[in-house]
Design brief:
about 450 residues, mainly alpha, Growth Hormone, Chain: A
């Protein structure tokens, strides 16, 4: 079977909206919890619970957005109407989230931030799930789709680097609320414009129209009974839960454990920059040695890296910066290979069911990843509350120990579990090629 290869320009158009979206999402992941506790003075348990609830809501809406986008039928395709519908609400939510009215305080302020969080994640779902599904449709080549998601990941990394730069501005600003307001207006407007521009330019495969799952329950039953899908669900949950706790805690580690206030962005620049630079290498290496093999190797290295964080202490800025670069290099593999393997699993499902359910599959994977992120931020909020965290002062030994525990030992154990699961994944290039032949023959038979 000849490997399909789509033009790089088409991939860049497809990837362009994630630049603004990941600027916004990165800033939320990196700094919203600390901004809320240290600047807005919202209690850590309260903001942690709201972020968990919003992530759970976000995860629950993923299946609906996935199945509905699979079933959407319009003259511009299945996915682009969703992108257009998400653009303005997402931009508005970004502005609301980082610029609450000055007069609000107490319960009113907490409710405002909570409402903005829910709006942000709802609009994010309406964009992200159909957008990922569209990426899986762009190319059906086993290795070319790694290139599709690799280029998209590079653009995402640029957005995350911009978010790290925004974080640096916030950490060092004399008036963080005023800076946050200006950043929110700029990022929100940029994200809205980029989504609309891409949706107006992209084209979708006409042969996939009308081939989504007819019943939502049957669609997600197929996701859960697919043996390859179940393994990826477990791996993504464990990996995301482990890594999200570290990312959420990074500003706290920087300020209170390492005693290096304002340095969070340095670690983020190292991690994100190295991940972006590693993407071409992972695309080439995965083609040479196989997607699964290189992912297993990168997970094993990450597992070891997590163990070393527990021993970090005051003054260890340089060692943590080096670790951040190493984390970035290994994360680059999963961010490229993971979505490519997801698209392969969708092809395997097509051979079995005759349906194209990219939305349902990517929604299910997003569900567990976002749920894991919600559990992570909730766990951090509860830990801070239970160990007596007080903003902007020296922390107790129990608080510092809790930070080390959640940033190191927990991710170490979770990544060991992910390694055990991914070792059982068996959908390789040969089996994928056979599934493609079967799916194409099935489609041809139904047309005839």
């Amino acid at each position: 079977m000849t490997e399909e290869r789509i033009p790089t320009g088409s991939i860049l158009v497809y990837s362009s909206p994630v630049l603004g979206v990941f600027m916004a999402g990165g800033l939320v992941n990196f700094y919203l919890l600390k901004f809320s506790t240290d600047i807005l003075l919202i209690g850590p348990a309260a903001i942690g619970f709201m972020l968990l609830a919003a992530r759970v809501w976000d995860a629950v809406t993923d299946p609906a957005a996935g199945w509905l986008s699979d079933r959407t039928h319009s003259h511009i395709g299945r996915r682009r109407p969703w992108l257009l519908a998400s653009a303005i609400p997402l931009g508005a939510a970004i502005v609301m989230l980082w610029s609450p009215p000055e007069g609000l305080e107490g319960t009113a302020l907490t409710l405002w931030v909570g409402g903005a969080i829910f709006l942000f994640y709802t609009a994010y779902t309406a964009f992200r799930v159909p957008h990922l599904a569209l990426g899986a449709e762009l190319s059906r080549g086993y290795h070319d789709r790694t290139r599709v998601f690799g280029i998209m990941q590079a653009v995402e990394s640029i957005g995350m680097l911009a978010a790290a730069g925004a974080l640096m501005m916030l950490e060092r600003a004399e008036d963080p609320r005023a800076v946050a307001r200006l950043l929110a207006i700029g990022i929100g407007g940029f994200a809205t414009v980029m989504i609309i521009a891409a949706a107006a330019t992209l084209r979708e495969r006409s042969e996939f129209q009308g081939r989504g799952g007819r019943n939502p329950w049957h669609s997600f039953r197929d996701v859960l009974t697919n043996p390859h899908s179940r393994i990826l669900i477990g791996v993504f949950f464990l990996e995301q839960l482990g890594f999200s706790t570290l990312v959420i805690l990074l500003p706290y580690l920087s300020d209170y454990v390492l005693d290096s206030p304002g340095s969070t962005a340095i670690y983020l620049f190292g991690a994100i920059g190295s991940a972006m630079l590693s993407i071409p290498v992972w695309i080439a290496v995965s083609r040479r040695f196989g997607k699964k093999r290189v992912w297993v190797w990168s997970l094993a290295v990450k597992t070891g890296l997590f163990a070393t964080i527990f021993f970090m202490g005051e003054g260890d800025l340089v060692p943590l910066a080096i670790l951040s670069v190493c984390f970035g290099l290994m994360n680059g593999c999963g961010s490229v290979v993971g979505p490519s393997l997801k698209a392969d699993v969708v092809d395997w499902d097509e051979a079995r069911t005759g349906e194209r359910k990219e939305g349902s599959y990517f929604a299910a994977w997003n569900f567990v990843q976002k749920g894991a992120g919600g559990v992570g931020v909730w766990a951090v909020g509860v830990m801070l509350a239970l160990t007596g965290f007080q903003p902007n002062v020296e922390q107790s030994e129990s608080t510092l120990f809790g930070m080390r525990l959640l940033a190191s030992i927990l991710p170490f154990v979770l990544h060991l579990g992910a390694l055990i699961l991914i070792a059982r994944f068996e959908l390789d290039e040969t089996e994928h090629r056979a599934a493609r032949h079967q799916a194409d023959a099935r489609l041809q038979g139904s047309v005839n």
